[in-house]
Records
---
Amino acid sequence: MEEKECLKCGCKTDLKEDPNIPDIYFCLECWKEREKTEVNEKWGYDESLPDDG
């Protein structure tokens, strides 16, 4: 059985499965960053837009 890991950083703890992509996982920290990116894209901003904090 293959061990689950974060797609972005490779972490193996605090994983959350992507609801849109089966068998894709992100750790808690990468998931928070991913949510920010999705909000930026929803509002039409480039995903590389720097975060103001």
---
Amino acid sequence: MIKKRYIDKQRGINASWRFRELADRLGVKAVYVPLKVPSFAERQRIHDEFGEIVRPIFLKGLYAFYKEELEQFLDPKMVVSFQMGWTPPCWSVHHLVPRSLGGQNLSLEAMEEIKQINSKDEVLVQDLENYLLGKDTEGISFAEQKKRFDRLFSNLALVEGQDHEEIHAVNNWYLQYVTKGETSLPKADVLVLQTEKPYIVPEELQGKVRPDFYIEKEPVSSFEIPEELERKMWEEKGIKPPKSDPRKQLKSKEETQEENPPMDIDEAWRRLTVKGIGFKIDLSSKENDESFHVSDSLAVGAKKAFLSKLPGFFKDRMHSFSEKDKGWLRNGSLPEGYAVFFDKFETNGGAGVFSVFKEKETENLSMHKIRKKLEFFAEDKKSFSALFKGFFLTDKETAEEIEAVLSDLEKQTGVKYTAFHKDGEVIVLNNEPKRENNNLWKEKKKSAYGKKADMYRFSKKGKGRS
């Protein structure tokens, strides 16, 4: 029997008041949307579609249609990263209606228009680009292309990273319902941001563009990346460019087909066992135990505090990281290719980091205050290990293997499990170099990062945040 859940009205009122204040400061509107949570499969589809397909096209479109506006509050060298489909450091792409509330990556109306233009039910990546470039009509103007871009990506906006974190931290009270079954949802409305521009910055940072500028400008003819720019940007990163697949299809239905071959669970078990990772029953899944929901602001704040303390307390475990990677960690950020694993949504909160925030008076703290409080408590290695028991830094492949094994266990037993690892081992990597080859590996890593990328330097010139 599912218990009927009642909403904390006062908490919602307080969050709405703070959210409206934030919207005023950012110079945008705040509007209400109903609390309607899509299924997990649909949320996962939108998440995958955004990272693999939508975000790069959106960023390239920002460069094509808003380059001059962006250069009024961003260094022109940072704006170049949009041309590559990259988000510059300290900036994020925000869903105005969050994905957890059914927010889409692409406008459904624009998607229907594209289907009608092409007379088919499927939309490919190339179809999106052809629509923005106006390949379906002769003599399309730049202004009309820009209108199509605004229409297609009406739910996305570029926002400064610190503001992005505050947006979610201020209005996260509804998240306790998102992770529950849809049948237990209360009736409530949630505030979201609304903006006319595909970016959100304080008005004082926005300059003025001539009214006739977009009328006079030549239409965009391509989203291709200049070869010289691509070579230069990847060289600065010190890694080989990835192989892209332009034939990737956008999924428009909730049912998603498995594109990648299924993971070999037995092999995943073997690899994780070698790393000292095991699994045990998650006591929080028992009905008699009081479960503790971890909000987004608490999850992000805890993760950042965990990462920022690692380089200081575990120098002996950091030999596989470059100086640049360590710099990201000290700032509380993940280097590229890494992940932090911990049980974000359900925990009994009996010990460690979450017990610190179980009291009601701490539930409305911002991500920044949570991080600072945890960093204060983690004053030495012993207290750090006690606070962050169950947290560990790993590569993405290992994190995916853990998720696969946990999912397999739950399917077979009907009981929820959690992951644990060797005491004191806070870093578990898939391709960790052998100690005897450590010096050689360091030289190769040093050579790869010998030239600091412009994007990294600009992140240092920002507001001093990760």
---
Amino acid sequence: MKGMDDEPPNSWFSRLFGAREKPVLIEQNLSDRAYEQYRELLLRARPETVGKKLVLHLSDGTVELEEGVLKIKARNRKAAEKILRNLHHYEQPPSLWPAYGLSYSLRKRKTP
């Protein structure tokens, strides 16, 4: 009889109780021109501004734009790559954004 330690790594047990995917950070260095283009693009989505940093909260992750650096934080690599791949769709009308997993920034309201 097999014990639990003898289970192959892709068994149903490991899929149910195995480790969850770790959050992923994709960081991309930008030229001055690329930074300005991303800044103009992300401003359409009403991001949160913290000094010179733009923070865009999406349902699947967060996009942060600082001078020279674009950072995408998501729950897994697939979601982060999808966000990065679809950022250029902010040039389209807002009614089309949800089709690409994009939206206006989901700002959290601060209660007094």
